[in-house]
Design a protein that fits this description.
heterodimer, A: about 110 residues, mainly beta, seven-stranded mixed sheet, 11 strands, about 0% helix, about 55% strand, B: about 110 residues, six-stranded mixed sheet, four-stranded antiparallel sheet, 10 strands
């Protein structure tokens, strides 16, 4: 168990809908990362937050957004969902903002029908 | 549990044999290289890392070799066990303000009895 929690574990929704994925980092970790794992793209970095502020952006679509709250949990919002957004979404956390020592949660499997 | 379901190269190894998983990277500026193990239904789990100024690092039953000349990384698992069955990813990391991990495609390791 990495100490990173993610909810929900599974999510099934229809195209055009909006969903929110939630992540709680390990105790003491200030940085949160979101990754997408799809069949054809592998693990792709989406976005990083550190202590409430956005720090880095990867291949994140404009339909997606994220935030980190004062209690350090993070939410990833996915809107206008398309079939191609079906994937596993992982959250990872680390102590600071410039380390590769990231601990991954169990992921949320999103299925868009 | 759920499988990652990726279309990955597969390495089949008999229990007790040694496994060698290979990875190519492209970013010559990477400072660190990390191997992750992803079991079915779980998030990636850190196995071992190596800094770019090293060519070999050993852990418990695992050894990582780095060849910067050809931008190649390998993970050797000694005396492979059924519990080693998983998808293995290499990732590289560039020290700086953007601490994103760039993951390789992954290799599925199947351990046969």
């Amino acid at each position: 168990d990495s100490g990173v929690t993610q909810t929900p574990k599974h999510l099934i929704t229809a195209t055009g809908q909006r969903v929110t994925l939630r992540c709680s980092p390990r105790s003491g970790d200030l940085s949160v990362y979101w990754y997408q794992q799809s069949l054809d793209q592998g693990l792709q970095f989406l976005i990083q937050y550190y202590n409430g502020e956005e720090r880095a952006k990867g291949n994140i679509l404009e339909r997606f957004s994220a935030q980190q709250f004062p209690d350090l949990h993070s939410e990833l919002n996915l809107s206008s969902l398309e079939l191609g957004d079906s994937a596993l979404y992982f959250c990872a956390s680390s102590v600071d903002q410039t380390t590769y020592e990231q601990y991954f949660g169990p992921g949320t499997r999103l299925t868009v029908t | 549990g759920e499988s990652v379901g990726l279309h990955l190269p597969t390495l089949s190894v008999q229990e007790g044999d040694n496994s060698i998983i290979n990875c190519a990277y492209s970013n010559s500026a990477s400072d660190y290289f990390i191997w992750y193990k992803q079991e079915s239904g779980k998030g990636p789990q850190f196995i071992i890392d190596i800094r770019s100024n090293m060519d070999k690092r050993q852990g418990q039953r695992v050894t990582v070799l780095l060849n910067k000349t050809v931008k190649h990384l390998s993970l050797q698992i000694a005396a492979t066990q059924p519990g080693d069955s998983a998808v293995y990813f290499c990732a590289d990391f560039v020290t700086g303000t953007a601490s994103k991990l760039t993951f390789g495609t992954g290799t599925r390791l199947q351990v046969t009895l």
